[in-house]
Amino acid sequence: MSYLFPTYARWDVEPVDAAGSYLTDSEGKQYLDFTSGIGVCNLGHRPRVVKEAIEHQLNRFWHVSNLFASGEQEKAAKKLATAAEMDAVFFANSGAEANEAAIKLARKATGKPKIITFKKSFHGRTFATMSATGQDKIKSGYGPMLEKFSYATYNDIDSVKEIFTDDVAAVMLEIIQGEGGVHVGDKSFLQAVEKLCHEKNALLIVDEIQTGIGRTGRPFAFQHFSLNPDIVTSAKGLGSGVPIGAVLGKESLKAFFGPGSHGSTFGGNPISIAAANATMNIIFDEVFLKEVEHKGDYLISQLAKFFQSNTLVKEVRGKGLMIGIEFKQSIQAILQELRTEGVLALPAGENVLRLLPPLTATIHEIDEFLIHLKKVVEAIAEPVVKA
Ligand SMILES: Cc1ncc(COP(=O)(O)O)c(C=O)c1O
């Protein structure tokens, strides 16, 4: 009997050790891990520099509260803000908390209540972020949701215009809808949303929880499309596995998050900040990011080539090292067979196989992944008939 709530449909793999792109389970079996803890371990498992930064902080102090000055938080905020072309940062503990704070800030700064988000979006599991999420399965049984959230269709600007009433505080979107099936935003659509926000005096919130921290080959994915959002949220990869979240905003928003207006006991905890500073030092580097882009292009092109005429595959899509392969059938059996082969990948909905390899994965590891994926998909497409 388990004393855990059964909220997760867990795999039959119990990690006991992990380093770089590989993970070892309790039976001694090794796996090539292309999940990165769902887009968290962007530098692979246990990156040395981050480990040393955490150890250094463990030997200083662990927690003091946000009543104290923090040079390290200032350093982390400067790195984040500079990379995202923003001016102010609030540190939280998770993606949902960062988005929750972004929604609060947008309502307070504009004095308006309505938030437009998108069908198939995912923004978190708290009440505001669940209300923002455009997927019924996430909300089932928890009603009523918070008021004043409306959902447009992703990549369809007319659907945004239709619900863009005068009481809209913000449009909140992902540059690539991750949990909703790895759908990449069109440049023209994203730029039109930003223009509409300016015209209507509303804010643009970009949720970079999954797409940020180098995942797509830029510090943040919005930077592929020359966007200039008012608020950006970050979490997942920011701490390399140590929990942390962040809301980034423009200078004009500082006045609305004054003393006492928002807060968190653990937000900006010294250990998380040490991990974030070390992580950003490595990832926000032009050469590192170019490599991510190059490896992403390679993986996507190899997948597209292989699946070109495969009857099971509908589409390969993505950017950098955030990739979705949409199948015409459920991918559960493929995920299971991959695990048997010693390879870990993720679902994004019923039919999409999602790949979030560590940004440090080598071309050799990518080739190793491709060999296993081809073998599994070929076996499923042409099952061996046993005599
Ligand atoms: C785009 C996006 N926003 C928000 C979240 C929620 O983050 P967390 O699970 O850290 O609360 C996620 C998590 O998958 C996400 O992908």
UniProtKB/TrEMBL annotation:
Catalytic function, reaction form: N(2)-acetyl-L-ornithine + 2-oxoglutarate = N-acetyl-L-glutamate 5-semialdehyde + L-glutamate
Which GO CC terms are listed, alphabetically?
Answer: cytoplasm
Which Pfam families does the record cross-reference, listed alphabetically? Answer: Aminotran_3 (PF00202)
Instruction: Name the Gene Ontology biological process terms.
Output: L-arginine biosynthetic process
One GO MF term on file is:
N2-acetyl-L-ornithine:2-oxoglutarate 5-aminotransferase activity
- Give the N6-(pyridoxal phosphate)lysine positions (modified residues): 236
Which keywords has UniProt assigned to this entry? Amino-acid biosynthesis, Aminotransferase, Arginine biosynthesis, Cytoplasm, Pyridoxal phosphate, Transferase
**The EC number(s) this enzyme carries:** 2.6.1.11
The subcellular localization recorded is: Cytoplasm
* Xref: CDD domains: OAT_like
Its required cofactor(s), as named, are: pyridoxal 5'-phosphate
Pathway assigned to this chain's UniProt record: Amino-acid biosynthesis; L-arginine biosynthesis; N(2)-acetyl-L-ornithine from L-glutamate: step 4/4
CC cofactor note: Binds 1 pyridoxal phosphate per subunit.
The UniProt record gives the binding positions of N(2)-acetyl-L-ornithine as 125, 264
Q: Which residues bind pyridoxal 5'-phosphate?
A: 95-96, 122, 207-210, 265
SUPFAM superfamilies, alphabetically?
PLP-dependent transferases (SSF53383)
Q: How does it assemble?
A: Homodimer.
| Record family assignment | Belongs to the class-III pyridoxal-phosphate-dependent aminotransferase family. ArgD subfamily.
Additional detail? May also have succinyldiaminopimelate aminotransferase activity, thus carrying out the corresponding step in lysine biosynthesis.
Could you tell me which PANTHER family the record lists for this protein? ACETYLORNITHINE AMINOTRANSFERASE, MITOCHONDRIAL (PTHR11986:SF79), AMINOTRANSFERASE CLASS III (PTHR11986)
Q: Write the protein's name.
A: Acetylornithine aminotransferase
Q: Which organism is it from?
A: Robertmurraya siralis
